[in-house]
Amino acid sequence: MENTLHRPVAAITGGASGIGLSSAKRWVAGGGSVVLMDLAQDGLDKAVAELGAGAARGMRVDVTDNASVVAAFESVGRVEGRLDTVINSAGIARPSLSREVSDEDFSLMLDIHLTGTMRVCRAAYPLLKQNGGGTIVNLASVAALAGMPGRASYTTAKAGIAGLTRTLAVEWASEGIRTNAVGPGYVRTALTDTLVAEGKLDDRPIKARTPLGRFAEPEEIAEVIYFLSTSASSYVNGHLLMADGGMTVDGNWYA
Ligand SMILES: NC(=O)c1ccc[n+]([C@@H]2O[C@H](COP(=O)([O-])OP(=O)(O)OC[C@H]3O[C@@H](n4cnc5c(N)ncnc54)[C@H](O)[C@@H]3O)[C@@H](O)[C@H]2O)c1
Fold first, then answer.
1. Looking at the whole model, is its pTM more than 0.85?
2. Looking at domain 9-241, which CATH architecture does it have?
């Protein structure tokens, strides 16, 4: 029988879809097991069936609800008994113009992305510490670095995540916990597919402004997350690694 005793465990918020699900697949392919934490029960059931019940467990968690997050990590402590990495990939997109955005919509985006990431890191901390250290990878975005019209709540949340990442990297390094963030450009997932379908995102100018000329596949971002999650990146801490096809360094203003 396979010895699963020391299988490294990843907790992945937003793990039922897109970048989170691809990261789960990558972690399992590397020999680990995953705990998927997501709001979407259907998505969780499908993801666990795909990954295999021996390698994956799904939990319905709302990152805006502290009790739900705390209970989830208590459960990881009881069931898996260890935690090696945390990937914060829960998120939504809700573009609106700054002159029109409601307090409720603005706060909700910050609550899910920024405070949600903080809640998850805080709840995971005792388990990571008990483990003798581990890694945290937070999902930032090109929106952490650029001003984007109609996306004030998203850019604010993602810039906040980059700041939070740097502070946790400094605060928790002495306990062997490394915290980094990945900054994807546009990735082909349900999140962007929905925006395109609703007419809230035109992918043509985005491709034209991306030096690589295309959206990323979620697997390409998962590979970067995997690097930041494992000892391959053992001296990387507090870094925002852009995986954006060159979008944020593009200085070609001539053509
Ligand atoms: N897709 C992109 O182009 C892109 C680019 C840069 C950054 N990101 C970021 O990557 C992360 C993942 O995005 P994705 O494209 O994979 O999206 P996705 O929609 O495919 O997956 C997001 C998942 O988060 C879950 N979720 C939403 N609210 C939640 C909550 N309150 N509690 C728990 N789970 C919740 C959803 O159910 C969904 O399964 C997000 O933080 C997003 O902002 C995405």
1. yes
2. 3-Layer(aba) Sandwich (3.40)
